[in-house]
């Protein structure tokens, strides 16, 4: 009798159960189960219970056929079929079929607890997972997994432990099946044991039957305590209290007495796998690796036990980790596979354990392995180590309170103070950023405590660096109180000595032994570095309107950090019981006293920008405390004078300076003082200078800006500007000189070599010193020395003028014999001379570096001024010096030149508001513009040419906006000179974009330059082809820009275009004349073609402009058709151009456009357009005909080849 058959709708759902998409599998499973349950409900509703059960009792578990008949009678046909289909599908290897079928089977069994018994299901599972004949290893593996997933569905559905008639024998049968699976294959043992643990946990859950619970615990207890202990049995014993394995010494598996044995068991978790793999390899049944890359699930059970706190009878977690992990998996002789397990266990344990146990994970062997693996990307376990670091970061992010303990361990005994540097990561930095304020305070206390208790300067230096990094790193949540405590500790360590430490706080940690002079200096340096960073820090402050404003250099209350530092310093100075000052220099003490008086005056003055000046006074006092300079009194005196000048009324200042030759304003005196601070190698003073300078920028005048520019030490006139014309003439002469004799060339080469030797820089002091040593040793004569002193004297050979040594002269009799001691003495003397020479060069190099660094600082001030005063006339003072500095990149530091160009380009030339300049100022702008044009003509650098173009547009915009008629004429003359230089001088290096950008940007300027451009567009002018082509583009750009201007649009047609037409027709006449047939006449075919292209575009522009004006007939009046026909006829008769169809075609296009543009009605216009198209086609007839014939030939050949291939293909098909 055939079994039940499913419907087509149910069959389609089975296919989706194996889908790799989880959502699709769940949806299909849910739909299948709901469909089956609906059919079962319908069957129950239409059939009596007696009919369903029949007269027979449920069959025994051993008879599978009777069980299937019973299920067919009790269940709907599709339900019975689906149940068996799902059980069989557990052995399918297709995609995710096991998972999908197990989910559907679990859900179905959970709803059939009253109809299907556990024994029935186990019998069917054995039937459909038992091989019927000889099978290979792959099929056997599928059947074993079918049994595993079948028991899993049985347990998860609740059928095994929740069936009202389930017996202990059925529970024991399920346990035996899993045990049998584990013993069949070693690689199935862990999975089977995991399912046994799930069964045990389900039995121990609330609501389960005590009878079945006892059966489960009895069966599993017997299995767990039998034979040798394994990790799987260990996992079961941890779930079975009171069960002790015979091989263990104590009842609790994790007791201290059992830890060595447990560690060995966990370390050799894959030993059985390896043994079985070796046996299979011997029989060539399995060639795969035996190691399991994933740590055993028993570790999860152990970690969950310690995380829950249910550790009665177990060893402390620290002991367990040390014995089972650190000394086992991370031992020195541990394999990489075991260490990989260790990293996995660490990543699992860290999020689970309480905060008190987390530091225990950072044990010695683990830390050593972790640091080594993090150090290089080529290490075998580098990815595992990086993953562990990421877990640490994520854990601290979730539990900020745990951050401090972990950081201390990473930096402590088993870690390294330079952990981030060694591992090339930012682990410590990231952890500090994830910690809360309390954790940061604890870390600061830890660092200060390590500084105070350490006996090594290296560790103290590390601690001071950590304090600086805490202040510098804005990602670390440091409070104002924490920062102030760090500053106080640094200032006490650098400027004071502990007498009787306070009772609490960081200052209570007195360093023992006391700081050395080096550490004291480092404390002062780090103190100023912290203040430098705090001055640059921006803080968000609330306003009265409820808004937020960002203020630089203040704390959360709006108090400047420098004032906080000064107040802290004063507080410590007054605490004579706890600290003693280390200031011993009377000069410094006097300067500090005077500075304090000045500070009181400034604080009481309440003048505008008094807060900035107060910052300057405090910074100077702090610098005097830190460095103790010799000119401390001078610094305070200069500040006092600045304050008096800035605070006094203008009349008082003028009265006081009546007797002086030139009045010095307060702002200039202040600027001079700030420049003096910049000359000192201090980042703190640099930051203070920029802060104060930014506050006083609104008060700066032209004189102060010029004074600041003078600090760059530049010659504003570029070298070689005066001799520009001479150089150009010489270059043109060299180009015109065509031939030279070979003898002259040879002689000149020899002379050049001699000149190169003569041009080499000779250090006369070095030569004289060497001569003195050789003369003292008798190796140089007096006469030779005198001759050497004057090598240019008459009758003296240059070679003879140099002192002779052994081997340099053929006459060796004049060289005395020297002993070894004498030679050694000469060597020492010569060595001293050359060492002194090297030292001198080093000092020169250092001096140059200091000069460049100072210029960088000055440029920063100029950039601040340019950004804050972009619309003032004083900013124009910066344009020319910065441009000169940027253009001298080959003579000075390249970075300095680049920075100058950046300031000029970004801060000045791209300002939105243009400065308002008077007539005198415009004269200076025009001079600067002349300098820019002069350099643009000479430079070969693309970057400098681009900068010159930007500056040119900026200065030209200012001149055009404010200049009168006289200045406007000068500006036009300047552009005319530059344009003529570009067109006529072959040595000109001017880039076309320099002029083209200006002509496009300023239509009025281009309109007044059109006459020069027209001269350059004429073929009668002696201009190179490329530059004439650029002239065409420039003129066309001028005309296009003028056409877009309302005031110039009419003049484009009435004034400009007739001039263009005159130049075009005269140039054509010149080109076709008999005297211009040679290329020397400048009327080559290429030039004529570019001219006609330009003319064609000019005609189209005339058409476009005239269409919008009241003169539609202007095209024919400007571009007379008769002249075009005459030009076409003349070119057709010319011997040089009569064969050039392209030139004639361009003329025909012009004629067609001109004649087509005069139609007044639609019909005539259409006719003219047709004639124009015919004319254009006729103009290009010859060339288009040639191209067309060539294309036709190619297409014909291709068609023939394709037709031949088709015939061959048909023949081949017919033969086949």
How would you sum up this structure in a few lines?
The protein is mostly helical and 1216 residues long. The protein has a two-stranded antiparallel sheet with strand order 1-4. Helix 27 runs antiparallel to helix 30 (610-627) and helix 29 (586-605) runs parallel beside helix 31 (632-647).
Topology summary:
Blueprint: H1 8-16, H2 22-46, H3 49-53, H4 64-74, H5 77-89, H6 97-110, H7 118-128, H8 137-157, H9 159-162, H10 168-184, H11 189-204, H12 210-224, H13 231-239, H14 259-267, H15 271-282, H16 298-308, H17 317-326, H18 336-352, H19 364-374, H20 382-398, H21 403-411, H22 419-423, H23 427-434, H24 437-453, H25 457-472, H26 480-495, E1 496-498, H27 517-536, E2 538-542, E3 548-552, H28 561-574, E4 579-581, H29 586-605, H30 610-627, H31 632-647, H32 650-656, H33 666-678, H34 683-696, H35 702-710, H36 724-736, H37 742-759, H38 764-776, H39 782-789, H40 798-801, H41 820-868, H42 879-887, H43 894-909, H44 919-938, H45 942-962, H46 965-984, H47 992-1001, H48 1003-1008, H49 1010-1017, H50 1025-1044, H51 1046-1072, H52 1085-1107, H53 1114-1118, H54 1121-1133, H55 1141-1156, H56 1162-1179, H57 1181-1215
Helix pairs in contact: 1-2, 2-6, 5-6, 6-8, 7-8, 8-10, 8-11, 10-11, 10-12, 11-12, 11-13, 12-13, 13-16, 14-17, 16-18, 18-20, 19-20, 20-23, 21-23, 21-24, 24-25, 25-27, 26-27, 26-28, 27-30, 27-34, 29-30, 29-31, 30-31, 30-34, 31-33, 33-34, 33-35, 34-41, 38-41, 41-43, 42-43, 42-44, 42-45, 43-45, ...
Give an account of the 3D structure.
It is found in: Nucleus. Residues 1203-1216 have a biased composition (Basic residues). This is DNA polymerase V. One of its GO terms (biological process) is regulation of DNA-templated transcription. One of its GO terms (cellular component) is nucleolus. There is one protein chain. With 1216 residues, the chain is mainly α. Among the domains are: 11-138, no CATH class; 444-543 and 550-580, no CATH class; 1033-1074 and 1083-1154. The protein has 57 helices and 4 strands. The strands form 2 sheets. The protein has a two-stranded antiparallel sheet. A two-stranded antiparallel ribbon has the order 2-3. A hairpin with a 5-residue loop joins strand 2 and strand 3 (548-552). Helix 33 runs antiparallel to helix 34 (683-696). The two termini are 53 Å apart. The relative contact order is 0.02. The model is unreliable at 271-289, 716-760, 785-789, 791-813, 1074-1082, 1158-1195 and 1209-1216 (pLDDT under 50).
């Amino acid at each position: 009798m055939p079994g039940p058959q499913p419907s087509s709708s149910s069959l389609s759902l089975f296919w989706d159960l194996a889908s790799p998409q989880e959502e699709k599998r769940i949806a299909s499973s849910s739909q299948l189960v709901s469909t089956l349950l609906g059919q079962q409900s319908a069957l129950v509703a239409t059939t009596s219970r007696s009919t369903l059960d029949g007269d027979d009792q449920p069959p025994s578990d051993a008879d599978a056929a009777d069980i299937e008949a019973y299920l067919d009678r009790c269940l709907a046909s599709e339900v019975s079929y689906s149940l068996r289909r799902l059980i069989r599908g557990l052995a399918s290897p297709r995609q995710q079929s096991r998972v999908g079928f197990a989910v559907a089977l679990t859900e179905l069994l959970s709803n059939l607890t009253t109809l299907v018994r556990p024994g029935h299901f186990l019998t069917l599972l054995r039937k459909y997972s038992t091989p019927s004949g000889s099978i290979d290893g792959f099929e056997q593996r599928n059947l074993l997994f079918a049994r595993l997933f079948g028991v899993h569905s049985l347990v998860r559905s609740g059928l095994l432990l929740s069936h009202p008639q389930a017996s202990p024998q059925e529970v024991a049968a399920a346990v035996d099946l899993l045990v049998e699976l584990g013993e069949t294959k070693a690689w199935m043992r862990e999975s089977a044991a995991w399912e046994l643990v799930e069964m045990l946990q389900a039995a121990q859950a609330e609501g389960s039957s005590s009878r079945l619970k006892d059966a489960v615990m009895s069966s599993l207890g017997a299995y767990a305590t039998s034979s040798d202990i394994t990790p799987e049995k260990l996992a079961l014993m941890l779930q079975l209290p009171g069960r002790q394995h015979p091989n263990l010494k104590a009842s609790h598996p994790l007791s201290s007495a059992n830890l060595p044995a447990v560690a060995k068991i966990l370390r050799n978790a894959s030993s059985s796998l390896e043994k079985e793999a070796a046996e299979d390899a011997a029989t060539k049944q399995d060639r795969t690796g035996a190691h399991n890359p994933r740590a055993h699930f028993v570790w999860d059970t152990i970690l969950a036990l310690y995380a829950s706190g249910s550790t009665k009878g177990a060893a402390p977690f620290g002991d367990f980790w040390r014995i089972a992990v650190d000394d086992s998996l991370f031992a020195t002789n541990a394999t990489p596979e075991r260490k990989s397990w260790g990293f996995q266990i660490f990543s699992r344990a860290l999020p689970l354990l309480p905060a008190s146990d987390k530091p225990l994970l950072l044990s010695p062997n683990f830390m050593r392995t972790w640091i080594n693996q993090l150090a290089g990307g080529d290490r075998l376990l580098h990815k595992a180590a990086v993953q562990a670091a990421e877990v640490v970061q994520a854990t601290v992010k979730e539990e900020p309170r745990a951050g401090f303990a972990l950081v201390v361990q990473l930096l402590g005994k088993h870690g390294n103070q330079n952990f981030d540097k060694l591992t090339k990561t930012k682990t410590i930095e990231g952890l500090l950023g994830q910690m809360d304020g309390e954790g940061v305070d604890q870390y600061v206390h830890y660092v200060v405590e390590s500084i105070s208790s350490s006996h090594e300067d290296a560790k103290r230096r590390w601690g001071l660096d950590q304090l600086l990094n805490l202040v510098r790193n804005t990602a670390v949540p440091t409070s104002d109180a924490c920062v102030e405590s760090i500053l106080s500790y640094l200032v006490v360590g650098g400027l004071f000595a502990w007498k009787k430490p306070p009772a609490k706080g960081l200052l209570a940690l007195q360093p023992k032994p006391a700081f050395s002079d080096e550490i004291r200096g480092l404390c002062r340096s780090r103190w100023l570095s912290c203040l430098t960073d705090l001055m640059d820090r921006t803080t968000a402050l609330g306003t009265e309107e409820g808004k937020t404003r960002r203020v630089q250099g203040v704390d959360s209350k709006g108090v400047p950090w420098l004032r906080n530092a000064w107040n802290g310093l004063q507080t410590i100075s007054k605490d004579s019981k706890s600290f003693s000052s280390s200031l011993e220099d009377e000069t410094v003490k006097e300067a500090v006293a005077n500075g304090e008086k000045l500070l009181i005056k400034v604080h009481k003055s309440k003048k505008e920008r008094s807060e900035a000046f107060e910052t300057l006074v405090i910074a100077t006092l702090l610098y005097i405390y830190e460095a103790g300079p010799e000119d401390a009194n001078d610094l305070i005196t200069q500040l006092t004078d600045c304050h008096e000048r800035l605070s006094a009324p203008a009349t008082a200042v003028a009265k006081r300076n009546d007797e002086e030759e030139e009045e010095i304003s307060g702002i200039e005196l202040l600027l001079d003082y700030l420049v003096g601070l910049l000359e000192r190698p201090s980042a703190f003073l640099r930051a203070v200078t920029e802060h104060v300078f930014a506050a006083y920028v609104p008060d700066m005048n032209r004189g102060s800006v010029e004074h600041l520019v003078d600090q760059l030490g530049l010659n504003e006139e570029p070298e070689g500007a005066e001799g520009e014309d001479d150089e150009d003439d010489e270059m043109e002469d060299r180009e015109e000189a065509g031939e030279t004799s070979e003898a002259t060339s040879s002689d000149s080469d020899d002379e050049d070599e001699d000149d190169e030797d003569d041009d080499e820089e000779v250090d006369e002091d070095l030569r004289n010193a060497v001569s003195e040593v050789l003369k003292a040793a008798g190796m140089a004569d007096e006469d030779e020395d005198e001759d050497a002193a004057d090598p240019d004297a008459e009758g003296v050979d240059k070679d003879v003028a140099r002192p002779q040594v052994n081997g340099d002269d053929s006459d060796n009799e004049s060289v005395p014999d020297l002993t070894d001691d004498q030679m050694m003495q000469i060597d020492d003397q010569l060595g001293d001379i050359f060492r002194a020479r090297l030292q001198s060069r080093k000092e020169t190099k250092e001096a140059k570096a200091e000069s460049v660094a100072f210029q960088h600082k000055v440029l920063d001030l100029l950039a601040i001024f340019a950004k804050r005063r972009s619309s003032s006339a004083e900013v124009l003072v910066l344009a020319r010096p910065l441009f000169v500095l940027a253009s001298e990149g080959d003579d000075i530091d390249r970075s300095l030149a680049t920075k100058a160009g950046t300031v000029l380009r970004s801060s000045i030339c791209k300002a939105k508001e243009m400065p308002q300049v008077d007539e005198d100022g415009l004269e200076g702008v025009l001079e600067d513009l002349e300098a820019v044009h002069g350099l643009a003509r000479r430079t070969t650098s693309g970057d400098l040419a681009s900068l010159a173009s930007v500056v040119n547009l900026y200065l030209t915009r200012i001149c055009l906006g404010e200049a009168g008629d006289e200045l406007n004429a000068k500006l036009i003359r300047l552009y005319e000179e530059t344009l003529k230089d570009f067109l006529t001088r072959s040595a000109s290096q001017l880039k076309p974009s320099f002029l083209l950008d200006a002509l496009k940007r300023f239509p009025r300027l281009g309109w007044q330059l059109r006459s020069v451009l027209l001269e350059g567009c004429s073929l009668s002018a002696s201009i190179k082809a490329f530059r004439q082509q650029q002239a065409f583009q420039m003129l066309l750009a001028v005309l296009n820009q003028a056409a877009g201007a309302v005031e110039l649009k009419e003049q484009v047609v009435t004034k400009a275009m007739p001039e263009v037409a005159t130049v075009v027709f005269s140039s054509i006449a010149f080109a076709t004349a008999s005297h211009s047939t040679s290329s020397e006449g400048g009327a080559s075919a290429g030039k004529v073609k570019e001219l006609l292209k330009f003319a064609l575009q000019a005609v189209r522009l005339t058409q476009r402009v005239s269409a919008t004006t009241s003169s539609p007939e202007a095209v024919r009046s400007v571009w007379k058709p008769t002249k075009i026909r005459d030009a076409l006829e003349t070119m057709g008769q010319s011997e040089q151009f009569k064969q050039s169809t392209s030139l004639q075609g361009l003329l025909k296009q012009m004629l067609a456009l001109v004649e087509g543009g005069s139609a007044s009605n639609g019909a005539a216009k259409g006719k003219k357009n047709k004639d124009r198209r015919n004319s254009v086609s006729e103009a290009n007839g010859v060339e288009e005909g040639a191209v067309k014939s060539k294309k036709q030939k190619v297409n014909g050949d291709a068609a023939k080849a394709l037709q031949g291939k088709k015939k061959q293909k048909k023949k081949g098909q017919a033969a086949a």
